[in-house]
Design goal:
- The structure is a single chain.
- It is built from 1 helix and 5 strands; from the N terminus they run E-E-E-H-E-E.
- The protein is of the alpha+beta class and 74 residues long.
- A 5-stranded mixed beta sheet has the order 2-3-1-5-4, covered by helices on one side.
- The chain is globular and about 30 Å long.
- The N and C termini lie close together (11 Å).
């Protein structure tokens, strides 16, 4: 499954907002430095879909707020 994510790094509160079936807006406390925000986004997406973190990969947008993620179901 593929999802599109818009990330807000350095937010005061972490939250995952569903915009549509495959579009999400995610706020993370970590700054967008040294891959910290990306790691936290992967953890939050994995928790949201109830899969292990190693089943979630960022395919596109490593250095952008807009990202394309892949989630392995099995």
């Amino acid at each position: 499954m593929y999802i599109k994510v818009r990330v807000i790094a350095g937010a005061k509160h972490e939250k995952v907002e569903t915009q549509s079936k495959d579009h999400f807006k995610i706020s993370v406390k970590e700054p967008a430095k040294q891959n910290l925000a990306n790691k936290r986004v992967v953890e939050l997406v994995a928790a949201h879909f109830r899969v292990a973190a190693n089943k979630v990969r960022i395919l596109n947008g490593h250095q952008s707020p807009s990202k394309l993620l892949s989630i392995q179901d099995e």
